[in-house]
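Posted in: Protein Modeling Q&A

I'm a second-year student putting together a small comparison for a lab meeting, and my supervisor asked me to include a predicted structure for Histidine kinase. I've never done this before, so apologies if this is the wrong subforum. The sequence is pasted below exactly as I got it from our records. If anyone can share the structure token output, I'd also love a short note on what stands out.
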Amino acid sequence: MQIAKHMKSFLLLITFVLSTSLFAQTGKEIIDRSIELSGGITNWKLLNTVAISGKVTLGVNDEYPIKIFQARPNLTKTSITIASKENIVEGYDGENGYAMNYATNKLERYPNYNAESFDTDFIDFESKGFSAQLLGKEKVGTKDCYKVELTKNVNKTIYFFDVKNYQLLKEIQKDETLIYGDYKKVGNLLFPYRIESSSSKKDSDYVILVQKIETNKVFPKNTFKF
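Accepted answer (user: helix_wrangler)
Welcome! Here is the predicted structure, written out as tokens:
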């Protein structure tokens, strides 16, 4: 009886230690593991340009061809094709941002455009001033995920990583929620081939189905120019 009692106490202790160690791993280890299994930090840092082509669905049934070009450190351009005409939606050329003004149906320059970094925030997040906290587990659809909050000052983003393969499945930002899926390998890196965006406004919701991704392609010099 004493042996059984001590064994039960021992098992309870082990369970406590394991459950404690899960959260003691912190969000950093979850993020590091995700980066490692999606290609490794070195390969992500060697990535300098990305060209994405596919289809974007806006609203219920409005589907259009889409092209996205991105380059370090923060250059970007997105265009969609409507009635056989390619239309630039938005971009950043290194100095100014530009976006389509749908009220005037013209592309306009925005000097105070907030350019996003080429890398996601959780690449070298600590050196960028972010801290990570593992909040536990939560399902995304039918999949169990690690729920990690990345915080910098008042800015917070929550990431959900599949517990089995550490793939990023969901991202909750201040004004937008992104769902990632259908991961495929391009060279040494894993990319999501399905991206779904939703927001409280609903009028800016979209689904992108990627058809092709090219990495480290040399773009013409005027690719990002307004």
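A couple of things worth pointing out for your meeting: The chain has one domain: 25-215. The longest strand covers residues 49-58.
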